[in-house]
Amino acid sequence: MKSIKEIKQTGIKEGILITGEYIKDIFNSTNIEEIKSILYAIYCKKESSKIIKKQKIDSKFESQAKFTKVKLEKIANEFRRTLISKQTESEKIFKAILKSINVPYEFQKIMYTDKTFYIVDFYIPQFNKVIEIDGGYHETATQKKKDIDRSNILKSKINIENILRLTNRDVSNTNKVIEIVKHFLY
Prior knowledge:
Layout: H1 4-14, H2 20-27, H3 32-41, E1 46-47, E2 50-51, H4 54-85, H5 89-100, E3 106-112, E4 117-124, E5 129-134, H6 141-157, E6 162-167, H7 168-172, H8 174-185
Parallel strand pairs: 5-6
Antiparallel strand pairs: 1-2, 3-4, 4-5
């Protein structure tokens, strides 16, 4: 049985015999774009008087895409449960602050894009806004860049209205953080 790498190297240029084993091998990949590009680039040829038609490949791809989404949701939910069980003291304090000013929120909300997911600390559905509580590691240059990229994705691909980032130090000053949150939301 050829690997995906071998299929890419030989199959795309020369055409290959597609068997159930090749399809199984291709679908063991978790990269949907890779699967799609291979399936549409390779040649469908006869094997034991069977022809794998494009419709069957499309159908198989759709099934795989649904399966991958289910797999992604399972991973996201497991990760979310872990984050909830290990919430920080600042997150606990901030939850109490939001309750005190009657702001409904979803804690550790999963946000999906086409190929991945993000978990935000606090999603405010009424305003379609996100509030993140950042620990000390968010102060590094590398993490700041990642946070900016993540915020841009949340705004562009998930259509989040706006994102407020607070530090653990901010949360410790209750009166100040209440004013910041009210200004952010209203």
